[in-house]
Amino acid sequence: MSNFPIIERAQRFLSVLRHCQVLGMSVHSAEPKGLILRLPYSEQIVGNPETGVIHGGAITTLMDTTCGISTVCVLPEFEICPTLDLRIDYMHPAEPNKDVFGFAECYRVTENIIFTRGYAYQDNPDEPIAHVVGAFMRMGKPTDLQRTSKGVGQ
Predict the structure, then answer these.
(1) At 118, phi and psi to the nearest 5?
(2) Which GO terms describe its molecular function (predicted)?
């Protein structure tokens, strides 16, 4: 996997996450400084049918995934890094009928933990709808059997 560009690694990671496929998430950009994922607006993720506002759980999923996949931006090879801790502060509801973007970066990488931070936004990154910080446990590279059965890291 280390032979692939960062954006391709991010796309491969996202492609094996079934819930993200159902939500229609896609990689908008990926580089060493961070990752942006796109969550398209759809009726399936509406939390309040009267207003059309997106459910907070969809934003949480976007941000957890964005932070988790941002690890491929800083690690030389794919490693299994499950979420240890995630905190999201919602600033205001997402506007109906607009896609949501999630940005995340890894700001500290240790031997055992990767620390991330980011934000969700719609039109303007300077007007975030939510802020996030997360910690991800480094469990190492997947074994050959795990790579073959899950398709991650190939």
Answers:
(1) 180, -165
(2) 1,4-dihydroxy-2-naphthoyl-CoA thioesterase activity
What Cα–Cα distance (Å) separates residue 1 from each residue in 98, 108, 133?
Answer: 34, 22, 26
User: Burial level of 80, CB count in 10 A (0-12/13-18/19+)?
Assistant: middle
pTM over 0.85, yes/no: yes
Tokens of 153: 């890291």
Q: Is the pLDDT of residue 153 over 80?
A: no
Q: Domain segments of the chain: what residues?
A: 6-150
Give residue 10's identity as a one-letter amino acid code.
A
* CATH 3.10.129.10 is the classification of domain 6-150: yes
Higher pLDDT, 147 or 57: 57
Return the residue matching tokens 């607006």.
41
* Alpha-carbon separation of residue 57 from 20, 67, 68, 76, 109 (angstroms): 12, 15, 16, 31, 27
**What's the rounded Cα separation, in Å, for the pair 13 and 120?**
20
